[in-house]
Amino acid sequence: MMNNEAPTAIPSTVLMLTMKASRLKDRDILSKNDPICILYELTGRAQGRPQWVERGRTETIQNCLNPEWTKKIQINYFFEERQSLKFEIYDIDSPMASLSAQDFLGRCECELAEIIGDGGKKTFNLSGLHGNCGTLTVFADEVDEGAKEFAQFWVRGEKLDKKDFFGKSDPFLDIYRIRDDNNRQLAHRTEVIKRNLNPEWKMFEVNVKLLCEGDVNKDFLVECFDYDNDGGLRHDFIGSCSATLNKLVTKEVQRLPLINEKKRQEKGNKYKNSGELIFKNVQIIKQPTFLDFINGGTQLDFTVAVDFTASNGGVTKPTSLHYINPAQPNQYEIGLRAAIDICQHYNNSKIFDVFGFGAKVPPQNFVSPIFSLTLNDNPSVVGVSGVMQAYRNSLNRVQLFGPTNFSPIINEVAKKAAKIISNGSRYQILLILTDGIISDMAKTKQAIISASSLPLSIIIIGVGNDPFESMVELDSDADDHLLTHEGRTAQRDIVQFVPLRNFLSMNGQNVDSERAMALLAKEVRFIFI
């Protein structure tokens, strides 16, 4: 997603890439690797200054040498352009540390067209370490960015085989799509339920296109395993079954026996099954699109919050992210204008509430958790020009300080969202522009979780060259798990993070407006779908 080289056209196709690796090198002494896969795309080639830019990363899988990641990475495919990709795999020993502090496991490079031209599936040898590094298989699926259909499953097991000698099994399910070439592709993995032969898994959703290519009469495969913490080499196979969505939704089939072919061959006629899966309920839901909401009359109310902490650099220094250069906008101005240009079209009033945080504010020069960029009691301004004028006026009067606290502004906007009548007519969006690490991470997580039931979403735009690794904790896209803190879990994912460098040209000062609008509009759409 991080592209500095503007394409000549809006992408003709959006792809979802899914990865799995085999026979990774084990670099942990006392356990197996905890691998993550990171995708990069080569940009800047047309300007003669190529660089690898991160597009996305999978979740981390614990103790596994043969990971099948379920987190998909979205990439725009331009069939008329050469798109070079690089995949790197790391063993994540410390989630908060940078990649340079993690153990490298291998890499491969390819052209996106290689994957497409091989039927949407291709296996590559990994390199970068001495000896055999294993392989990486990449699947590419075209995604319809309009209406999305998801299958919701409520499943329990009954009388599953006992696989542990000293205790009951720890069962989980793998759900696979069967491709046209009869290869299978992992679509979903449930949680592990400890020591239970009659487990009931949490409701889960699977994209219908990724499960069965959108064909409700096409079989998909379910495998049940007993989880063993040995690196994914020997999860004990309990049994498998296949089904179609049509039969499950219509309840033509609700109970499916789990069959272990090896046991059936050993026991012959004495073998019945290795337990059963009961599909209590299966339904297909259509998630409304962004246009569905807008066409239905939903108005988006926008609040903007700008980081005025000292880590941005003194405003008089040309290296400052807030430096005012008469000849060109600074990065905050680029980010503000690109975002507001898009957002203003979804609010008839064109009114934005604009705030800052992390500065000493006149006349008392006290540090204010949040302050109005208008420097009065009314934070509202009209349109792009109003936002830009308020930003520049306040920049000349406040003193950059600290800390970088997100929770005050999130709580402030959440109060407004809580007052909205729950009829879908209005929706709050908080747009935060920041340069780096959050100072109040625990309180920010609490604020996000508390706000997750409200008509509110948060878009964070990262300004500057910070790796922004702490933002991964807030954006649930990173690992496909809802944000959790101190025993509380968010009701939904309300945070979307995007680095400004997605839109910047190679000199870091110009932005391709068409590219910025296309990508930021996608981030705005994401909060609804």
Automatic annotation (TrEMBL):
Q: Which UniProt keywords apply?
A: Calcium, Cell junction, Cell membrane, Cytoplasm, Membrane, Metal-binding, Nucleus, Phosphoprotein, Repeat
Task: Choose any GO biological process term that the UniProt entry carries and state it.
Answer: cellular response to calcium ion
Chief location category: other
Q: Where is the signal peptide?
A: none
Q: Where are the transmembrane segments?
A: none
What SMART domains does the record point to? C2, VWA
GO CC terms of this entry? cytoplasm; focal adhesion; nucleus; plasma membrane
Highest rank taxon of the organism: Eukaryota
Look up keyword Oxidoreductase and say if it applies. Answer: no
Q: Where in the cell is it found?
A: Cell junction, Focal adhesion; Cell membrane; Cytoplasm; Nucleus
- A single Pfam family it belongs to is C2
Any idea where the C2 domain is?
A: 1-126, 132-258
Nucleotidyltransferase as UniProt keyword: no
- UniProt domain VWFA: residue ranges: 301-498
GO function term, MF aspect, one: metal ion binding
**PANTHER family, per the entry:** C2 DOMAIN-CONTAINING PROTEIN, COPINE
Similarity remark: Belongs to the copine family.
Q: How does it assemble?
A: Monomer. Interacts with ERBB2 (preferentially with the tyrosine phosphorylated form); this interaction occurs at the cell membrane and is increased in a growth factor heregulin-dependent manner. Interacts with SHC1; this interaction may mediate the binding of CPNE3 with ERBB2. Interacts with RACK1.
What's the stated role of this polypeptide?
Calcium-dependent phospholipid-binding protein that plays a role in ERBB2-mediated tumor cell migration in response to growth factor heregulin stimulation.
This protein is called what?
Copine-3
Its source organism is: Diploscapter pachys
